[in-house]
Amino acid sequence: MGRLARVPTIPLQLRGRGARSNASGRYESQVREDFDDGWDAGEAPPALRTVVQPEQAKTIVTRNDSPDVGFSRSINPYRGCEHGCTYCYARPAHAYVGLSPGLDFETRLFFKADAARLLEAELSNPRYRPEVIHIGGNTDPYQPQERGLGVTRGVIEVLVRFRHPFSVITKSALILRDLDLLAEAASLGLTRAAISVTSLDRKLSRSMEPRAATPERRIEAIRRLSDAGVPVMVMFAPVIPGLNDHEMEAVLARCAEAGAKGAGYVALRLPLEIKDLFREWLESDHPDRAARVMSLVRQMRGGRDYDVQWFKRMKGEGPIAELMSQRFAAAKRRYGLTHDLPPLDLSRFRVPPKAGDQMELFG
Q: Within 13 Å, how many C-alpha atoms sit on residue 329's CB side?
């Protein structure tokens, strides 16, 4: 059966959710769309329950050769993310499993139950050679279900036991649960953390990232990580012109005061389905700024919603993007965020002995 013509979905207002629609993934032969039959006028849409199920992964370490990503190996304990950030660049990946990058992405989630076992097996391979592993390169490793599942903690326990260097990025204060492991790893030169702070405005933050930690809790996480000796940088990402870009300097100032040593940013990216999801959200939550925001985005992307070219995709181009870069560089200098975080130590890696590897000595 051929694909059906795609028609506009009805924007939904669901408490605690980011996406406003749930159109079928781009690989589906049949397309599911919402439509208004007139019977639900004035009624609130039903609440959506989050469903989390195990994913039978065969491997746990993902490798990439993208020249503008900054890491070549990563671990993503979860597929999908309950934080619900409409702008999330990981949303299109949900189409690979036959689900929608819209509401499915934040309500139908998968966890890699065997992550720690798979990682231990890979690191124990005699042919394995260590490189820094980045945790959370796609979806957040500390989203709400991690509190009960502990998949990310299991991964970090293995990495610390093997003395393997790693970095981690999150917008959740739940990272502080693992402060014992992170502090131990940092004392050996094995880890650093990045905390994403996109706004100091609680209302805007809740709109952009409905189930993520408040800005205050993220800044407190920076403070406590830094106090424990964990090198921390702040990520002001994404920068959305006309929406949160005016907070750039204020965010960097607060995070520097909390102990951050470095900073980075990424301009808003709208690949594939995200462009439509973001527009729906923007017109729903910020109708007074929607047209201007999209105009500024297109000015950074050569007149398009998005440009997939290496390096340009992260920062954009043109006068708007150049001004953004200049402001960010000036703010980093002003608040002392120009330090390079120390390189992580690859030399400490070793496969720990297992029970029975050596005969016990008897006196």
A: 7
User: What's the CA gap between 172 and 36, in Å, rounded?
Assistant: 37
Query: From its phi and psi, is residue 99 left (phi > 0), alpha (psi between -120 and 50) or beta?
Result: beta
Alpha carbons 46 and 362: distance in angstroms, whole number: 68
Of 194, 193, 180, 166, the closest CA to residue 346 belongs to 166
Question: Which residues have a Cβ under 8 Å from the Cβ of 150 and sit 6 or more positions away?
Answer: none
Q: How far from chain centre, in Å, is Cα 179?
A: 19
Residue 180's closest CA among 229, 235, 123?
229
Place of tokens 């992580």: 344
pLDDT number for residue 40:
54
Q: Which helix (H) or strand (E) holds 73?
A: strand 73-75
Query: Measuring CA to CA, which residue among 289, 313, 290, 291 is closest to residue 302?
Result: 313
The strand pair at 73-75 and 133-135 is best described as: parallel
Question: What domains does the chain contain, in order, with CATH numbers?
Answer: 52-334 (3.80.30.30)
For 7, the token pair is 């028609």
Cα separation, 342 vs 190, in Å, equals: 10
Give yes or no for a contact between 106 and 82, defined as CB atoms under 8 angstroms apart.
yes
pLDDT of residue 2 exceeding 70, the answer is: no
Contact of 2 with 12, CB cutoff 8 Å: no
Taking the CB of residue 219, how many other CB atoms lie within 10 A of it? 23
State both tokens at 321: 């993007």
Question: Of 114-123, 126-135, 347-356, where does mean pLDDT reach its minimum?
Answer: 347-356
Global pTM?
Answer: 0.90
Asked whether the beta carbons of 181 and 152 are under 8 A apart, the reply is: no
- Please report how the helices 290-300 and 274-285 are oriented relative to each other, as an axis angle in degrees rounded to 10: 150
Residues 6+ apart with CB under 8 A from 65: 72
User: How far is it, in rounded angstroms, from Cα 78 to Cα 109?
Assistant: 7
Continuous segment of H or E residues that includes residue 262: strand 262-267
DSSP code of 338?
A: B
CB 306 within 8 A of CB 87: no
